[in-house]
Amino acid sequence: MESWLAGLLRAAWVAGILPLIIASLPSSRLNSFHGALLGFAKRGKIMQSSSHKFTVPQRFFCHFYVVAVVWTTLLLFTLWAYAYKMAPSVSEPSLYSTIASHLTGGSHMFSFHKSHLTLLQHRHRVWSSVFVLLLMEIQVVRRLIETIYTFQYSPSARMHIFGYLTGLFFYTAAPLSLCCTLAPEVFGFAAALVAEFIVKGKRQMPAFEFELWESVNPFLKLRWFQWIGAAIFLWGWMHQRCCHAILGSLRERAEQIDEYVIPHGDWFEIVSCPHYLAEIVIHLSLSLSLSLCHTNTKPFL
């Protein structure tokens, strides 16, 4: 059964995208709606100095990536711990016990095959989610570093509060969407550990045995399309990093902060907003990797 969290996130994404689709329809009756939506999206130089009502400083962009890094890191390590303990890459003991139960008449061969296949599919789904969350972590950490050290926002630059809240929503919902089908059981796993810690205390808690190879080995068993997705991700990631470096270099001198300078180099030679194009490539690679993972029924071994 599909989790309630997945349905809630799907409804939230539809609610966020639907106004953009409506505003893009070629109808004169929607001009006022289009103008209002465009006003919410304005920031920096394209925002009139007289329209600073309900705005925040543009340097608050940093808040997006602080939230994204903290939230994605929490999800990643919680899911990784769950995968390591509940979906290990080697699970022969449980497999052997299932076979022994079959030989002694405790299970049917068909049910054994079905349960083993379900176990492998679940393991693949869990480690695939860990993999894409790891890629998301690489993205948001780099964006936080760029926001702090690469970009120099003008003290007068503002953005609409609606755009600010939209950014906070995106960087909260996007990482969660990458693991939403597993989130309820992972949160239950984490809550059980916390409850056990509260009841037993630190001294009575069983030691957490961690082996580096066992925590990395499942990535080597992912399907080919996930590695292609990772290659596309890194391609977009590197071009976005290069484009942001070019944009940041335009404002190295303080007197250039309020000037408009045409950027050149990398994807700026072929499109007007290559950093946004790279962002599309990055998130498309993540969504494609997970979509193909859920539609491909052949698990790894």
What does this entry look like structurally?
- It is a single chain.
- This protein has helices spanning 4-23, 31-41, 61-86, 92-103, 109-149, 161-177, 183-200, 212-216, 224-249, 274-295; strands at 55-57, 158-160.
- It is mainly alpha-helical and 301 residues long.
- The two termini are 25 Å apart.
- Residues 91-104 and 109-114 have low confidence and may be disordered.
Brief rundown of the structure:
With 301 residues, the chain is mostly helical.
Using brief descriptors, characterize the structure shown.
globular, 301 residues, single chain, mainly alpha, 10 helices, two-stranded antiparallel sheet
Sequence-ordered SSE layout with sheet pairings:
Blueprint: H1 4-23, H2 31-41, E1 55-57, H3 61-86, H4 92-103, H5 109-149, E2 158-160, H6 161-177, H7 183-200, H8 212-216, H9 224-249, H10 274-295
Antiparallel strand pairs: 1-2
Helix pairs in contact: 1-2, 3-5, 3-6, 5-9, 5-10, 9-10
